[in-house]
Structure to design on (402 residues):
């Protein structure tokens, strides 16, 4: 029986998507719910899986094709699975044969026969590494994730190795198409610069009280909640309390209206291999410190693996961006439309400061608040940032909500 594989219903506001690299080729066996190909939208990558066990009879579209919901992209033959299973078992013996003579199904069986783990196999698939070829190169032994990384780096070195003078080119270039996510990021950031009147105000915060509280309760917190007490929970709670005092910073512009949000959906900017994404902490005012830390950690893992959903990336009333984890000392973050403000955290660094007329060393961090001056006055922006600073320099205020 032949079954069509179609592009699923796309999320709201997404009109089309791009097919990325096929994980299966024609003639290869596939299991039900096994990933056939990744589908890249403007925000996330979705997996298109096999509806039934069978064999890939036909791939109707190539990698890179732009598709819409309902488009047929492949055909699976559910009655051919037994034949492929028998052929695959016979082809495993032929792993060491010349690659130029091996058909696609034989290569697939060879790769499956390599002794390795799921992490190494996943990375090899992402990097386009032939597991059977790598196993042969390493003497036929098992293949680890580190082997795949090393093999990929060697290939990259070969690609970027300087060309000797006189050999026809010493200035190599590589042109690759911009991903949909990167294109969308560029579009939104350009939109923010063109439509909003963006200003940035700065302040600095003494992080010693937060550091002392973390050191005091870290062991108990980890034992109780199974996760470390980080900085993002403190910043999120401090931001929420400041937003309650200055609701215009939590507002947005809709046409000729200002929309004041009576809830606190805080975006947490997260770096991923595909670019910056901003998953949302819904109702952050109702979350505990542990819930915030766990959710932010999960966001980071799923962003790295491309597993964030559209819903998790949609909405948000305010954003926190932590450039300090990359070593940034100071920056001017750009707005994430339609939000009207974004807070930038930076590197904590010991600096000389004056306290009561005495010069002392303190772990200081610069804060930067970029805001849309069309609806947020400088007065409110400065006082908002001061409120965040005061909450962090006296963490008990966060818990007491004063």
């Amino acid at each position: 029986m032949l079954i069509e594989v179609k592009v699923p219903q796309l999320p709201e506001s997404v009109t089309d998507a791009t097919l990325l690299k096929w994980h299966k080729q024609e003639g290869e066996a596939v299991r039900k719910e096994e990933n056939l190909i990744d589908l890249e939208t403007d925000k996330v990558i979705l997996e298109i899986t096999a509806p039934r066990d069978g064999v890939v009879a036909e791939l109707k579209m190539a990698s890179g094709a732009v598709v819409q919901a309902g488009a047929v992209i492949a055909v699976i033959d559910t009655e051919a699975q037994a034949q492929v299973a028998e052929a695959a078992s016979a082809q495993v013996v032929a792993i060491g044969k010349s690659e130029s003579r091996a058909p696609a199904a034989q290569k697939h069986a060879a790769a499956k026969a390599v002794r390795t783990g799921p992490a190494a196999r996943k990375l090899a698939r992402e990097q386009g590494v032939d597991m059977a070829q790598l196993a042969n190169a390493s003497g036929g032994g098992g293949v680890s994730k580190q082997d795949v990384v090393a093999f990929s780096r060697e290939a990259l070195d070969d690609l970027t190795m300087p060309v000797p003078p006189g050999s026809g080119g010493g200035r190599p270039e590589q042109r690759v198409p911009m991903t949909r996510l990167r294109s969308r990021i560029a579009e939104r950031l350009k939109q923010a610069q063109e439509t909003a009147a963006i200003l940035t105000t700065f302040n600095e915060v003494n992080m010693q009280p937060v550091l002392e509280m973390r050191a005091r309760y870290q062991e108990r917190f980890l034992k109780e909640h199974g996760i470390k007490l980080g900085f993002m929970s403190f910043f999120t709670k401090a931001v929420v309390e400041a937003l309650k005092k200055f609701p215009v910073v939590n507002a947005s512009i809709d046409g000729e209206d200002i929309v004041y949000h009576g809830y606190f959906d805080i975006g947490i900017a997260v770096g991923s291999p595909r670019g910056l994404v901003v998953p949302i902490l819904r109702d952050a005012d109702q979350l505990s410190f542990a819930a915030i830390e766990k959710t932010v950690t999960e966001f980071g893992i799923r962003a790295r693996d491309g597993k964030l959903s559209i819903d998790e990336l949609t909405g948000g009333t305010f954003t926190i961006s932590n450039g300090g984890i990359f070593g940034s000392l100071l920056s001017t973050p750009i707005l994430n439309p339609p939000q009207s403000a974004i807070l930038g955290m930076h590197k904590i660094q010991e600096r000389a400061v004056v306290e009561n007329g005495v010069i002392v060393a303190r772990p200081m961090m610069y804060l930067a608040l970029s805001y849309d001056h069309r609806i947020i006055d400088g007065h409110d922006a400065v006082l908002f940032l001061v409120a965040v600073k005061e909450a962090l320099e006296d963490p008990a205020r966060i818990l007491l909500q004063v």
